[in-house]
Structures are given as C-alpha cells and as structure tokens.
What we know:
The structure holds two protein chains of two kinds.
Chain A: H1 2-20, H2 27-36, E1 49-53, H3 59-65, E2 70-74, E3 84-86, H4 90-99, E4 104-106, H5 110-114, E5 120-123, E6 129-132, H6 134-140, H7 146-149, E7 153-154
Parallel strand pairs in A: 1-2, 1-3, 3-4, 6-7
Antiparallel strand pairs in A: 5-6
Chain B: H1 2-18, H2 28-35, E1 39-40, E2 48-49, E3 56-61, H3 62-68, H4 73-77, E4 83-89, E5 92-97, E6 108-112, E7 115-116, E8 137-144, H5 148-151, E9 158-164, E10 174-180, E11 184-196, E12 199-209, H6 220-223, E13 230-243, E14 246-260, E15 267-283, E16 286-301, E17 307-324, E18 328-343, E19 350-367, E20 370-386, H7 397-400, E21 402-416, E22 421-432, H8 436-440, E23 442-443, E24 450-453, E25 461-474, E26 479-495, E27 502-504, E28 507-511, E29 513-529, E30 534-550, E31 569-579, E32 582-591, E33 594-600, E34 604-610, E35 613-623, E36 628-635, E37 641-642, E38 650-651, E39 653-661
Parallel strand pairs in B: 6-9, 24-28
Antiparallel strand pairs in B: 1-2, 3-8, 4-5, 6-7, 8-9, 10-11, 10-39, 11-12, 12-13, 13-14, 14-15, 15-16, 16-17, 17-18, 18-19, 19-20, 20-21, 21-22, 22-25, 23-24, 25-26, 26-29, 27-28, 29-30, 30-31, 31-32, 32-35, 33-34, 35-36, 36-39, 37-38
Amino acid sequence: MRRKSSVLILASALAVSGAARAAPLDTKTIQIVAKTFDFLSHKPAPGSKVVVTSGAADPAAVQAVLSKMSVSAGKASDAAGAFAIFVSSAEEAKAARDANAAVFTIGPDVGCVNSASCLMAVETQPKVTIYVSRAVAQASGIEFDPNFKMLITEK
Amino acid sequence: MRNALLSSVCTALLLLTAWPASAQTVNYGELEEIFGEPVTTSATGKPQKVSEVPVDMEIITQDDIRRSGADNLPDVLQFVTGLDFRRSSFNEGEVGVRGYDQPWNPRLLVLLNGRPVYEDFYGDVVWAAIPVQLDEIRQIEVVKGPNSALFGFNAASGVINIVTFDPLHDSTDAVTARTGTQALREGSAVATAHVSDEFGVRLSAGGLQAHEFSTRGLPAENAAGLLQPETGTFNIDARWLVTPDVEWAVEGGAGTMKRNFPADETPENDRTTSIRTRVTAATAAGLIDVDLYRNTWNINYLGSQAQQAVNIADDLRVSDLFKIGADHTFRASFEYKYNQAQGQFFDNSTIYYATYSGGMMWNWDIAPGVTLSNALREDHLELGMKGGIEPQTGLTDAEFNRTLDATSFNSGLVYALTSEDVVRMMVSRGFQLPSLNDLGQQIVPPGAGVVDIGQPALKATSVFNVESDFDHTFSDLGVTWRNALYWQHNADLFGYDAGVPYTIGPNVAYQSANLGSSDETGFEISLKKRASEGLRWNIGYKYAIITDQIWSGIAPGAYSAFQGSTPRHTLDFGAGYGLGRWEFDLMGRWQSRFTDYIYTIANGYEPVILSGYTTLNAHIGFKATDYLTLGATAEQFDEDRIQERAGLATDRRLIFSATANF
C-alpha cells in the first residue's frame, strides 16, 4: 500500500513538474512561430521586444530566428511592453498576460492553449499543427489572417 | 440585365475597398513553409493542408515540373496515377481523369488560378493556348472525381487547377530557351516586379514553332493540309494590397495556336484572350471574394468546310468564407455566367445561355483528426438562339427556349486513424454540360457534304462517384502509400457525331445525341518518395473497368463507345537522383490496349485497336552556375514511334534547354 502511494506521489510530482516545465522549444518550432507573425492583422514592428522565460526556449536561438526583434531572457512579469513572450508553463502565461494583456504568448504544449492560458502552441511531429486559443486571442485583441485561421486548430 | 450586374459588381468593389478588413488571398509559399506541405483551396474553397482535403488530390510541384524536362502541361500530367493520356499531335494531348478520355475531353475542368480555361465552344481544354509558362507555376492541383459542387459544370471527372507564383509574395524571373527534334524552337520569359510592398506584377510570354509528327500511315485525306505547330501566349498578373488587408488582382492573357484535331487531323487556328479582376477582403461577415472574368475564343476551323466563330463567356462569382465557432467553416457562393457563340458554325446566328448558380459548403471538425465536409450547388441554365435557324436542320426556336437544372454535391469524411494513417470516404455528383457546338451547331454546306447539327434538347451528363481512400505515410522512409477504390455511374452521356447518320437532301447529317449510361469501377495504388537531394522514386497502378449501356441505334464512335476506349491497366513509375548540381530522372508509363476511332469522310468512324505500349522519358539537369541551368530530355526514348491513338503517331523527341534564373 505504501509502495503504491509512493508511486502515485512520484507520478503526480512528475505530472505536475511536466506540466510546469516542458522541454524548451526547438529551432524548427521557433521558426514556425516566427512565420505566424506574418499572418497577424497587426504585425510587429522591427525592434519589438520579445521575452523568453527560463526553460521556454534558448534566447539565443530565438534571437537568431527573430533577428529584427529585441530578444531577451526574463520573467513573466517582464512581458510589460513586450510584443511576445515564450513561456514554459500555463502559470507563466497567465502571469505574463496579467503584466500585459495584449502580449502574444507562446506556450510549451497544447495543454497551455487548452487551458486558455497561452495564445499559441505548435506541434511539429508527426506533422505541423498550430493551436490557438480563441479566448486568449479575443482577450488579447490579437487577430490572424482569415485564410491562416482556416489552417490552424482553434481551441 | 448584364449592365445591372456590372454596376452591382463595381458597387461591391467600392464597398469592399472601403470596409475595414483583415485578409488577403492565400500566400501559398509561406503557408507551405509553415505547415511543411502544400496548401490548396481546390477541394472545398477553403484553404487546407493537402493531407486533410476531403477529395482524392495529387499535387505536382514546381520541382516535379522542372525535373520532368517536359515543355508542355500534358507531358507533365501523363505520369500522374489515375490520369489517362494520349497525344493527338505535336501541339495537342488529351488528358482525362479515370477513363472516358476522348478526342476533346469534355469531362475535365482545368483552371488557371481558379479561372476556367476550359473551352465551352467545343467542350475541351486547349492546353497549348493556356497563357502560362512552366517556370511560373507553383503547383498543379489534380482533383480526381467530380467537384461540380465547388466549380460547377464540367468538373465531372475531375479538376486541374494550375496555381502560379504570386507577384505580391514571390519573385519569379526566368528565361528559358529550348531546341530539339521536330525542328523545335521554343522560348519563354517570366518577370516579376515588386513596385512596392503593396503592389506586384508578373509578366510572362512564350511561344514555339516546330514540325508536326510524321504523317506516315495516315489516310491521305487526313494527312493533307496539316498545320505546322505554332503557339504564342502572354499573361499579366498584377496584385495590389489596397489596404493592409484588401487585395485587388487584375489578370489578362492571350494565346494563339495552330493545331491539328484528334480523330480526323483537321487543322484549326485559334486565338484566345482573357481579362479578370478579383477583390478579396475580410469583413465582419467573413472572407469575401468577388471574381469577374471574360474569356474569348476566336475559332478558325480550316477543314473542308471552313468555319469561323467567336465564343465569349462572362462570369461573375461571389463567395463568402466564414467560420462559426472553432469547428465549423462555411462557404456560400453565387455565380452568374453568360456564354455566347456566334459565327458560321451557327449559320451566323448566336447561341447563348445564362447560368445562375448558388452553393453552400460546410466543413465540420467533428473531433481531432475527424472532419466532415458537405457541399451542395444548384445550377439553373437558360438556353436561347438569336438570329434565326437554318431551315434544313429541322430545328425550331421552341427547342432552344429551354432550361436545364442540375444539383451537384460533394460529401467527404476524413478520418486520421493515426498520425500516419488517413481514411477518406466520399460521395459526389458532378455534371458535364453539352458544349455550345453540341447544343446548336448548324453547318450545312452549299453543295453535297456532311451536315453537322446540334441538339438543343441534350441533357447534361451526370457523374455519380462513390470512393474510399486510404493513405499511409512511412515517416521514417519519407514514403507515402496511397490507395483509392471507386465506383462511378455516368447517366445521360452524349456525343457529337454519335447518332446514326441520316440524309438531308444530298447531304449526310450527323446530330449530337444523348447515348445512354455507363459504369466504371476502378482502383489506384501508388507509392511515392519525394526528395530534392538523393533518391526519389514513385510507382503507381490504375485498374479501371467500364461497362456501357448505350441505347440501341447509336453508332459506335469516338464519342459513343467508352468501355473499350479506356485502357484497363495503367502503370506509371519513376526514379530520380539529385547530386549537388546534377539531377537525373527517369519516368515511365505503360498502358494496356484500347480501342480508338479514326474518322474519314469516306468511311465515317472506324475502330482501331491500339496495342499496349510503354513510354520512357529521361531528363538530366545541370546547374551550371547559380543562375543558369541546362537540361537534356529524351521523350519516348524507348520507341521511335508510338501509336497513342488512331491517326497521327507520336514520334520520339529530344529537347535541349537552357534556363536563366535571375
């Protein structure tokens, strides 16, 4: 019984930590996210601020892809004044939106979109699927090109 | 009526440009980069990833076109599994989807960026006169099976949409020169100008001169008077982002060609022009598309009874694409088309029809990986003849004053069983409309000869298709395995020169007629590995069996006997290797025997059984510099001559090309 409880506790801890800390986004995912910016009604200006929280992605990799933007490592609360933020958890996404209601939040997985915490999450395997939260988009005032919206999975 | 419509369109354009909006037309290139696969609108009118469309679709990419080494569209299409192909002459080839291929195949709707290039006069596609150069094509979308619910009449056996690069988003600048056997002299040029971030224009032009294939073995009357192949085309495509979100496109094209008809090798000299304007904008009511075009054909028939005619088709299409909630997409559409032809084919009278159409598409994402698409369209056609009727034809005004209604539909369920397995279940109905010639020609020679008479009472052919597909992707190998099983019922088939000839005075008369029905059962299986570097290969097989139920009293001919005229077995295959600056490709096609018909004045239609044959093509490409690519292609290198149809045989071709990309 004690052994079963230990397993459950361990599994729960792993699940929680998994939800809180997913693997950092890889370069392919960052590139896809960057291209989706071209399908925004209000495209970011050169030099726009982009924040990457710890564990969300490698800031250097994000800067390499978003070469015309100002990318920095930071916390969720640094979303103030930022155009976009890469977050590693739903909690960070919510905190970022508390700091800046209009920020474009990119989460680690579809769960973050399902919980209406992140605006966007991207899967690249086995094929590219882009998830977007309608509730977050509406709350953030973010609008995508209608043709693009036909190709994404809205939640 | 037509002026009122034009005024409405202008008002709509002004309103659209004034509305706040947040959309533009599909940026194929960037979307393909994002999703890692081609994007298309040819299935439902909605942008979709090709792996998710509710139809059986093949995409031919620019890479495929270049590596084929071909210099014309039918030669590119002939290696697609499920397509039938027979070359009629140097400048003309017939492409069919799933059998029923005929001289002048009327069952396949071909579009250039969504604009029909189908010729309504005869009911066919004059491939060489399409104003597009191979270098400016992004992708060719091949839909197998009816899709009239989206595109209307003549999307009966399938649809081919040729999608070019977008002058707003893509830069295509290329000059190609070709020479080869048959004294080929060919050139094309494509240039794009990005005047600003909001305005782009692409110009293209091309042409060829060559010698016709050898006439050895042709009846003397068919060999006499053949034209030497000649083609010239021009196109302009300008797109303007009026606001960040509203796009206005203007396209214009022209083409001229000399060709020799299938079946009787009659020469003809055609000219075509087109003009199109289109506005796309997103409004609170959805993504609205207003599309207006005019296609004009000048036909100069140079047979024993020389005839001229002009065919003008004006078409207005309006659609609204919108989403309700996260899972439901709708597309409402309206179309008005006015089609008329005037000239000696009609005893200098004018035959016309107006078509009013309305449709609705509903795409429902039922669950992750499960999508249901339904489309329904109603077409109402009003036919008429102005200017009198040749008395000897026996036709009356009352016969022309008629209407025709057609209800077409497409329904498809796409179910992704796993990340690598997709099942599609589809049922659809499409329509093939009789051509203007089928409906109303009145050719009566002054002396004794052949009288050709249309039949205004013709019914449209309906094509009912039931299909089940299964696709599997071997992700580790990069190989796609596709399977399709289908059954088709074709009702109210019709044919030109199909009835039993009768006499009017000293003349022998032929009249278009409905013939009966026909069923087809078939399956296709293919494996394809795509790769720009290293090894790529493909193999596909099609089996089709057709059973005609032709009414008694109908004489067999090229347009009235289908079960023997479609090869039962077709195999296509290819392999290629990309190595640095070099590309090597081999393509092949084998088909079993079939029956074709040759026409002579003396004997009418006579059946000819054509043996099965294999065509092998090879292409070598060498990127000499970053700007210059050289190519050598051997078409049909395995055979000096192939009898692909009764009549003119196809000769081996060697093509040498140089393409400069800027």
